[in-house]
Design brief:
Elements (H helix, E strand, L loop, with lengths): L1 E20 L2 E15 L2 E8 L17 E3 L22 H17 L15 E3 L2 E2 L10 E5 L5 H13 L3 E5 L6 H7 L8 E5 L5 H9 L9 E3 L3 H4 L9 E6 L6 H13 L6 E4 L6 H10 L23 E3 L4 E3 L10
Parallel strand pairs: 6-7, 7-8, 8-9, 9-10, 10-11, 11-12
Antiparallel strand pairs: 1-2, 1-4, 2-3, 5-14, 13-14
Length: 332
């Protein structure tokens, strides 16, 4: 079967407030929008081009106009579901095509999906993403540490705990042992769900929790180093969560494969999906796929892009993100 790619357009979106980054402020993101015609269906597609993760000059898709698709041997755990052969696709492009293929398979009620997903169930629980001046009570929130002074982070954490919030702290590999100790000084660690990669090495983390009884029960989450450490998970002490940005790290087929693999194993860590300043269509797909992993996910970057979100809803009281059926990605 032939499929046609057409109507490529670059679309910019505002990020507000601007995202603080070590190289300055990021106030815009970009997507590549396109149409994919499969059989009689015209499906909308988009490629995330968030500038901190992706380079639009390296894209392969814009050079493609016609694809050969074979649905005879569909395997959701293989790249592009084992339906298309394309070389040198980047993960964000692969995610995009798989998103369109997933929409097609749902629309045609393909049997391969039924063992994995409820196709009308587009909702999941998330942690709130703390933005400056947010007033949050009795929630699970993500808070980035290391961007302020240790004293300021410490005071903020105490205030969060006073308001009965559970914390997921994100260190972005920006800390050392002494600064983390200062941030956690006099903190009730029962309110800390985990810390994402506070240091640049796993060895430093293992030493940190092993050298002090005060921190021996503190939990760790992998984020930036997922690809580096996915075959060394048993070396990480107190590993509680693996945080995956699907448009950057695994794509949709990779998530199906991960779900298949961990279903065969005994493990104590959670799989948490994380957004990459994705537009509404892509975030909606992440909410849909999140049902594979029954956890509270990190899909809060929509708070920076509220003006672009027209169809999805966020119930702040329950911290539930509610999407819409993927078949709405079909234009006609």
């Amino acid at each position: 079967m032939k499929a046609l790619l057409d109507n490529f357009q670059y679309i910019e979106s505002e990020i507000h407030p601007p995202l603080k980054h070590k190289d300055g402020l990021v106030n815009k993101t970009k997507n590549l929008s396109y149409d994919l015609k499969i059989d009689h269906l015209l499906i909308k597609g988009e490629v995330n081009l968030f500038p901190l993760f992706f380079n639009e000059k390296q894209l392969c898709l814009p050079s493609q106009r016609e694809l050969n698709i074979d649905f005879k041997n569909i395997d959701l755990t293989r790249p592009l579901f084992n339906t298309i052969e394309i070389n040198n696709l980047h993960t964000n492009e692969q995610f995009s095509l798989e998103q369109a293929l997933l929409t097609y398979l749902i629309r045609t009620e393909h049997q391969s999906l039924k063992e994995y997903l409820k196709t009308d169930d587009v909702k999941c629980l998330i942690n709130d993403l703390f933005l400056e001046n947010d007033n949050i009570h009795n929630k699970v929130i993500k808070y980035k540490i290391g961007r302020n002074s240790p004293k300021e982070d410490n005071n903020n954490i105490k205030e969060f705990i006073k308001n009965k919030n559970i914390l997921r702290l994100d260190g972005n590999q920006m800390l050392n042992s002494s600064s983390l100790k200062e941030i956690l000084k006099e903190i009730d660690l029962s309110y800390v769900d985990y810390i994402e990669e506070p240091f640049q090495s796993i060895d430093e983390w293992n030493s940190f929790i092993n050298d002090s009884d005060d921190f021996k029960d503190l939990s760790f989450a992998i984020d930036e180093n997922f690809k580096s450490y996915k075959y060394k998970l048993d070396q990480i002490h107190n590993l509680k969560a693996i945080i995956i940005k699907p448009t950057r790290d695994l794509s949709i087929s990779g998530l199906f494969k991960l779900h298949q693999d961990i279903s065969k194993q005994n493990h104590s860590y959670q799989i948490i999906l994380s957004s990459s300043f994705d537009n509404e269509m892509t975030l909606n797909t992440l909410v849909f796929i999140a049902q594979l992993f029954n956890n509270r996910h990190g899909l809060g970057t929509f708070k920076y892009m509220k003006e672009d979100f027209k169809k999805m809803k966020y119930e702040r009281d329950t911290q539930k993100l509610i999407g819409y059926p993927l078949i709405e990605n079909i234009i006609n």
